[in-house]
UniProtKB/TrEMBL annotation:
Matching Pfam families: ABC_tran (PF00005)
Keyword Nucleotide-binding listed: yes
The protein, known as: ABC transporter ATP-binding protein
UniProt keywords, alphabetically: ATP-binding, Nucleotide-binding, Transport
GO molecular function, one term: ATP hydrolysis activity
Gene3D superfamilies recorded: P-loop containing nucleotide triphosphate hydrolases
GO CC, alphabetical: membrane protein complex; plasma membrane
Superkingdom, taxonomy of origin: Bacteria
Species the sequence originates in: Dactylosporangium sucinum
Statement: the UniProt record of this protein carries the keyword RNA-binding: no
Positions of the ABC transporter domain: 13-239
SUPFAM superfamilies: P-loop containing nucleoside triphosphate hydrolases
InterPro entries reported in the protein's UniProt record: AAA+_ATPase, ABC_transporter-like_ATP-bd, ABC_transporter-like_CS, ABC_transpr_LolD-like, MacB-like_ATP-bd, P-loop_NTPase
Taxonomic path: Bacteria, Bacillati, Actinomycetota, Actinomycetes, Micromonosporales
Length: 239
């Protein structure tokens, strides 16, 4: 049964009174502190804020990688707080693409094999998965590195492979944590164009970034501090 969390219009991502605490007593950290969020389908949302303000924690809660201390989360109208690990794993596999701050590629697989893996695990036909993986590598400027192992790639190239991998399954939601943290201007531009392509395809994007250029392609910018939103700005899209 699909339903939104309250009477409002259904959004792709919804959170209500979302809270994540770590530790207790003197060491209590309110990483995410009573946050409400609605991200409509197809929105490109950037989250910005100082180190330690809770950006990564929020992203992981929204993607079902961490459990909230309290509060409710729905993805496409399905409650994920309290969902079983098994169902959560399937939902992530089929509907969510993650780009992590620390990107883990499989060392023994080539770039293209790393990218197509998620699609293969989700049951896509091998030829289609390969074609899309090569296309995505081309989009991030790595067409000529498809057959390289991660150990044969630079840090920024590995990061771009990880971005391509997150998109291989055509997920409805892409959650990206500092995707351009290690990239130079040219590679950042490739990633920017890729993200613009996501919007054209109607995919929902939540990206944590310090990079003003990435934030500039977002429809909306949320500023965070101490686990809470301090600003929520809808910006005109200039393409
Ligand atoms: N597993 C954990 N145990 C205890 N505290 C944690 C844990 N994970 C995160 N925290 C704390 O929660 C707060 C938010 O952390 P988070 O990683 O979400 O910050 P961030 O905004 O992503 O920072 P950065 O920009 O440095 O990546 C920090 O104070 C951090 O120390
Ligand atoms: Mg972080």
């Amino acid at each position: 049964m699909r339903a939104n969390l309250d009477g409002t219009e259904m959004s792709h991502i919804q959170a209500r009174q979302l809270t994540k605490r770590f530790g207790e007593g003197d060491s209590l950290v309110r990483a995410v502190d009573d946050v409400d969020l609605d991200v409509p389908a197809g929105q490109a949302l950037a989250i910005m804020g100082p180190s330690g303000c809770g950006k990564s924690t929020l992203l992981q809660l929204l993607g079902g990688l961490q459990r909230p201390t309290s509060g409710r989360i729905a993805l496409a109208g399905r409650r994920i707080d309290g969902m079983s690990e098994r169902r959560l794993a399937r939902l992530r596999r089929d509907g969510v693409g993650f780009v992590f701050q620390s990107f883990h590629l499989m060392d023994e697989l080539t770039a293209v094999e790393n990218v197509e893996l998620a699609a293969l695990l989700a049951g896509q036909a091998p030829r289609r998965a390969r074609r899309r993986a090569l296309h995505l590598l081309d989009r991030v400027g790595l067409a000529d590195r498809a057959a390289h192992l991660p150990s044969e790639l630079s840090g920024g190239q590995r990061q771009r492979v990880a971005i391509a991998r997150a998109l291989s399954n055509e997920p409805a939601v892409v959650l990206a944590d500092e995707p351009t943290g290690n990239l130079d201007s040219a590679a950042t531009l490739d990633v920017l164009r890729l993200f613009e392509g996501l919007r054209t395809a109607g995919q929902t994007l939540v990206v944590v970034t310090h990079d003003a250029r990435i934030a500039a392609v977002a429809d909306r910018i949320i500023s965070m501090r101490d686990g809470a939103f301090t600003d929520d700005q809808h910006v005109a899209v200039h393409t």
